[in-house]
Design brief:
Helix 1 crosses helix 4. Helices cover 78% and strands 0% of the residues. It has one domain. With 283 residues, it is mostly helical.
């Protein structure tokens, strides 16, 4: 567990750098076929893959609830990145939001830190995927109806991407467990790698659409709020609460609320928002 926390934080930092690189390019280049020719977008992909690797190792060593919640810290990394590139200094409200996120994460790690990671119940994956797919479909419909409202459309697409990223984390746990116990060949022939490829591809498409539609803070915040909440729900259902689950549940819920509230405060920060500086229309 002690190694999963720094690995998750490393992944969050890499994801923040990747998102910053990719979003600025995506706002300028609306077509995906053109994006793949942009050096900054490709660099963002490489950095994102490195973050993905760090997340996979963190999930193998620790709890999905803790790891997915720690990924919220990419907002904290994005704050100085956007301040430097955008020329805006963090405000008091930014530090208040950051403090709430840190407090929530500290509480979550304290509560969940002693809980041993579980391999999960494979029988619970199928209904979870059905629910997730239904939510994503609904969000895509909402995004289509909100085409004239760039930031609302961005938020809907980013929430859908956040659900996809959470499912990617679920499949990573199962694939990592298979790889450790059964080897490469048996893992490759089982369903987790295929499901992982589908969820990762879907999340990549959704997040690029979200980046192209609106601002980086709107997209990143919607994803980073969705991810830990979805991770908490999946952690309780697919991976199960321990025998003393009531105390863990009571501690985890306020921690997630603190994280979400802090992330929402950061979302509304003018330090992070770039709509006024980049009035590109949504796609």
């Amino acid at each position: 567990m002690e190694f999963s926390v720094p690995l998750a934080l490393l992944g969050a930092m890499l994801f923040a750098v990747s998102a910053t690189l990719q979003q600025r390019t995506a706002r300028r280049t609306m077509l995906f076929v053109r994006l793949v020719r942009e050096p900054s977008w490709l660099l963002g992909c490489v950095v994102g893959l490195a973050g993905f690797g760090a997340q996979a190792m963190a999930l193998h060593l620790g709890s999905i609830v803790v790891v997915q919640a720690l990924l919220v810290t990419q907002l904290l990394f994005a704050l100085p990145l956007n301040a430097v590139t955008g020329g805006r200094r963090p405000l008091v409200r930014d530090w208040s939001g950051a403090a709430a996120v840190c407090a929530g994460l500290a509480l979550l790690v304290t509560v969940r830190g002693a809980v041993a990671p579980s391999a999960g119940r494979r029988s619970a994956v199928a209904p979870t995927v059905v629910v997730a797919a239904g939510l994503i479909g609904l969000l895509l419909l909402i995004a289509r109806l909100l085409r004239s409202h760039a930031q609302s459309r961005t938020a809907a697409l980013a929430v859908a991407a956040g659900i996809c990223f959470c499912m990617t984390a679920v499949f990573l746990v199962f694939a990592g467990d298979d790889l450790a116990r059964r080897g490469v060949v048996a893992t490759a022939l089982d369903w987790p790698p295929a499901a992982l490829a589908v969820s990762t591809a879907a999340a990549t498409v959704l997040v690029q659409k979200a980046f192209a539609s609106g601002s980086l803070p709107t997209a990143m915040t919607s994803m980073t709020i969705t991810d830990p909440i979805a991770g908490w729900v999946v952690g309780m259902t697919v991976f199960g609460a321990p025998a003393s689950g009531r105390g863990v549940l009571c501690g985890s819920l306020p921690a997630i609320v603190l994280v979400a509230a802090g992330a929402a405060a950061l979302a509304a920060s003018p330090t992070l928002h770039d709509e006024r500086r980049d009035p590109s229309p949504g796609c």
